[in-house]
Specification:
- The chain is of the alpha+beta class.
- Strands 1-2-4-3 form a four-stranded antiparallel β-sheet.
- Helix 5 packs parallel to helix 8 and helix 7 crosses helix 8.
- The chain is flat, with a radius of gyration of 22 Å.
């Protein structure tokens, strides 16, 4: 009993065996490991510190010895952590935002005056809604349908998953956001990945809005 936001949060975040308002143990553990990594502590340290003496400790020691014997050419690439991790994320956010808003980019140009970024330029999660001239005269349901077609086109034709959020909220929410497309930047994202994303989004907008492709979901 309660608002839809609270009910959905409890339903999605709680484990099947957990009937209290506390977070599931495994979720808390993942959050703790993420915080330690952001602080610059290796994930291996988290595992080592949590393991006791005995067989587990011996297994860890044997694993470390095997790692030393592995040729350097087979060593996995070192993962970023701490300030280096955050710096890389900020760079990727800036690159994604800059490419989407670059009026000289052939595919980003197709988004001009058709989609508008509503999120902060520093945020790794970008929301793009229909521009005022595209949304005028359309109901929320109609705007959501347009964005759903753009999202579907990106997935089918461009191989890029972009989430359309208009159908995720309902009338019981206290604050109902505008229908939008959600794009996320992350640490592993390369410039080539951004180019693929912008190309897929530009072609989808051109197909759905300019060519009025209403049969894309059929």
């Amino acid at each position: 009993v309660g608002s839809e936001e609270v009910v959905d949060h409890q339903r999605l975040s709680g484990a099947g065996y957990c009937f209290s308002a506390s977070a599931p143990p495994f979720l808390s553990k993942v959050c703790l490991a993420s915080v330690r990594r952001l602080e610059g502590k290796l994930e291996d340290d988290v595992i080592t510190n949590d393991m006791g003496e005995g067989e587990d400790a011996e297994a860890t020691k044997e694993g470390e010895e095997k790692k030393v014997e592995t040729p350097s050419t087979q060593q996995p690439q070192e993962e970023l952590e701490g300030s280096a991790l955050l710096d890389r994320l900020r760079q990727n956010v800036s690159n994604l935002y800059g490419t989407l808003t670059d009026s000289s980019h052939p595919h980003a140009l197709k988004l001009h005056n058709r989609l508008v970024i509503t999120s902060n330029p520093l945020s790794p999660i970008l929301y793009l809604r229909l521009a005022d001239n595209e949304a005028v005269g359309q109901t929320r349901v109609e705007q959501t349908a347009v964005l759903d077609r753009i999202s579907h086109h990106c997935l089918v034709e461009g191989g890029v998953a972009i989430v359309s959020t208009g159908g995720h909220v309902r009338k019981h929410l206290q604050l109902v956001p505008e229908p939008a497309l959600r794009v996320a930047a992350h640490v592993c994202q390369s410039r080539d990945d951004v180019e693929v994303l912008v190309k897929a989004l530009g072609e989808a907008v051109e197909s759905v809005l300019l060519n009025n492709d209403g049969n894309i979901l059929e």
